[in-house]
Design a protein that fits this description.
mainly alpha; Double Stranded RNA Binding Domain; DNA polymerase, domain 1; hpI Integrase, Chain A; three-stranded antiparallel sheet
Length: 416
């Protein structure tokens, strides 16, 4: 062994000695570093030299062994890096194979939660119009044709504003996916909202002459009794048709004449006071479905009626062309003088009638379960209007009773 003496900046150990061991193998002189004193004791370095001498005696070159070990470490590092790249690529492939429903859940948790409603309205719209068509399709496989199919299906229901809103949300969701490399192109890019058509907010209100005609035609329209009750209950309570058919018996209190809607469009529960007219519909329904959990059970009795069912049945009875295959032949059974109407128009009709019967606008808005848009008003106006709301529902129910019974001396209401 021999050492090279070096000066160090360490004040405690101003001198260090770096030791090498020189040896011969296969006729060649080689040398290998042993260590540095005083970090390693002389005895420890002699022991290391003796160990290396045993390797040389057995034909192993310490220098070669160290070089091989170093190379193995480098190879292992390269392999680990390549394995990590493969793992990341596999993760990226799995992410690219996310279904549309899974992508929506990710988008909702990361982006939609910033919306005032936490994304609940978008969730409802996608559950209704997007997931049934492409919910289980891989995001990377979604094409323009899929999006066009969603738009066309919604436009068949003549819901222009909702179609534009869903298309806008789809565009935002796929933009989210594009930013994260889940997709290579946005399938919504070439579908323009302007081509869908003007929003055309509906203002269809059924006049009282039409309501009398409606009451006359409904029993012979071919609609199931449950569907007839759904329309009458919705009109009497001015609720949304989807919220009406989702009713559960546990939320109906016949003694207190109260119906609670725990899950509504604005994300809040809504309490409806039941007029005699509304109560009569629920009593009819109790005889039909009172043994089930749902007021309007589906055919399998394991959930509520689909929210689109009644709307489709009403539309089928106001067709101007031939009946559709497998649907009712009574294509004009619910045609009214004022033109085409939908279940939602019954809600608007009830609200308008409440105003004509003297209910204040704020009271009607509460009955409709609308959210106050003015933030300051929403925070500081705490009045519940329970009494005036009950009066509004009662007066409207009494008016419906009069119109349904078709008395000859009914005086038609006129808007002020």
């Amino acid at each position: 062994m021999f050492g090279m003496v070096r000066a160090t900046p360490d004040t405690k150990n101003p001198v260090s000695v770096d030791f090498q061991w020189r040896y011969k193998l296969n006729g060649k002189t080689r040398q290998v570093r042993i260590g540095s004193w005083p970090k390693i004791t002389l005895k420890a370095m002699r022991d290391e030299r003796d160990r290396l001498a045993v390797e040389v005696k057995s034909g192993i070159d310490p220098v070669q062994r160290k070089a091989t070990a170093k190379l193995k470490i480098e190879v292992d590092q390269v392999e680990a890096h390549n394995n990590q790249l493969d793992r990341l690529e596999l993760i990226a492939e799995k992410q690219a194979r996310l279904t549309v429903r899974q992508l929506f859940n990710l988008w909702r948790d990361l982006a939609l939660k910033q919306r005032s409603d936490g994304g609940s309205e978008a969730q409802r719209a996608f559950e209704r119009d997007v997931f049934p068509i492409i919910g289980d399709v891989a995001v990377a496989d979604v094409k323009k044709a899929h999006i066009q199919n969603i738009v066309d299906t919604m436009m068949a229901r003549d819901v222009v504003r909702m179609t534009k809103r869903v298309l806008s949300d789809l565009r935002q969701m796929f933009g989210f996916a594009l930013d994260r490399d889940y997709v290579e192109a946005d399938p919504t890019a070439r579908i323009k909202k302007a081509k869908i058509g003007p929003d055309g907010e509906r203002d269809r209100v059924l006049g009282e002459a039409e309501l009398i005609d409606f009451f006359k035609k409904l029993p012979v329209s071919g609609l199931a009794e449950t569907s007839q009750c759904a329309l009458l209950l919705q009109m009497a309570t001015i609720t949304r048709i989807g919220e009406t058919v989702a009713a559960r018996w546990e939320h109906v209190d016949f003694e207190r004449r109260l119906w609670v809607l725990p899950d509504t469009k604005n994300g809040k529960s809504h309490q409806v006071w039941l007029s005699d007219f509304a109560l009569h519909q629920l009593e009819r329904l109790r005889e039909i479905s009172g043994a089930t959990e749902w007021v309007f059970p589906n055919a399998k009795l394991n959930g509520p009626l689909d929210s689109k069912t009644v709307t489709k049945q009403v539309a089928d009875r106001q067709r101007t062309d031939a009946p559709m295959s497998g649907r009712t032949k009574q294509i004009d059974a619910l045609h009214l003088a004022g033109g085409h109407w939908r279940p939602h128009d019954l809600r608007r009709t009830g609200a308008s009638a409440m105003a004509e019967l003297g209910a204040l606008p704020d009271v009607i808005e509460k009955c409709l379960n609308h959210t106050e848009e003015n933030k300051m008003k929403r925070i500081y106006q705490r009045a519940t209007y329970e009494g005036p709301m009950r009066d509004a529902w009662r007066l409207w129910g009494e008016r419906l009773n009069l119109l349904a019974n078709k008395p000859a001396n009914v005086v038609m209401l006129r808007a002020a």
